[in-house]
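Note to self: keep these together.
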Amino acid sequence: MKTLRKTLCSLIMGLFAGLPVCGAATPADEVMVGAADTAAYFPLLRGQRVAVLANQTARVGDEHLVDLLYRSGIELTGIFSPEHGFRGTADAGEHVASSVDERTGIPIRSLYDGRTRRPSDEAMQSFDVLVVDMQDVGLRFYTYYISMLRMMDACADFGHRVIVLDRPNPNGSYIDGPILDMNYKSGVGALPIPVVHGLTMGEIARMAVGEGWAKPCDLKVVPCRNYTHATRYELPVAPSPNLPTQRSIYLYPSLCLFEGTIVSLGRGTDHPFEIYGHPDLPADRFPYTFTPRPTAGAKHPPLEGQLCHGIDLSSLPYEEILSEGLTLRYVIEACRALDRGEAFFTPMFEKLIGVGWVREMILDGCAAGEIEARWQPDLERYAKLRAKYLIYE
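Structure:
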């Protein structure tokens, strides 16, 4: 059962039925992202040395935030880049070297070079204000918020102000999944929040400071305008190489769990996070076929070169995906069909789902609804906590 999520979705659909869908059938300026509200933050940057934590999604119209700040005379002293790099082209978890932005000559300091969990003292002393602008997708295991929290902690140590230029959460209309057991804290899960947390980057920053999960820092959030968590927002720029479509972003909560199994979720194909399969799945029940190949953003995909039998979800209607939310049924169906027991899973599964009991219940033969019902009480408690930090109703 998903009583809480269904109730929230019903309320949202009832309250906002008939409103235009932002990013699809309405003008592009229906929702104004924080970065576009320059009057709210430019005065705070004048006369300061400014660093930016950003990637390819930090767009203001057709212009990148870095270019906007640079041509506006803001003193930019550095760019910090998260997972996938400043241009957003690197593989998941790939080490990305530091470099220099060709257009502006500003140094780019990678937070994913395999060594840097936080910048050096020298790097931290090179700026006074950190501006954060990255498009998140609303999942606990999507790592941009973790990079932001690490930088917030470092800024707290050096007395630097942090300004978060907020962006909508495309999966922000509901919350779902288990709360992270901090025994499974990792690079893909840093806070005791559910898989689908229903927060923007600005709201996560507020919650992390408010709950003592991040060090107290001088934090300012520049909010979006004309946005609520009920707003349907389609992303103008792919947030990472393997989330190229809106449907992949909506399916991501459920299909990313295959990263903790032996099943491919389509990396190395034209439909990552919209399909899944394995060479040994029975063709009569899993009729779709694909063969993962090296592609941009997936240089060595799982099951590379192997013909996989699976399921194609690339035509599933958006509303059907959103109404179901995070579902375990895809993982359970594949697990039952392959009949590998524990060998179906890898240690990454617990890091993604966030608890140890989901794997146990799947292997015990429990149905998806029975397992999902177990996380509802924790989700209800989280909903009350979340309400304290919402910027958008």
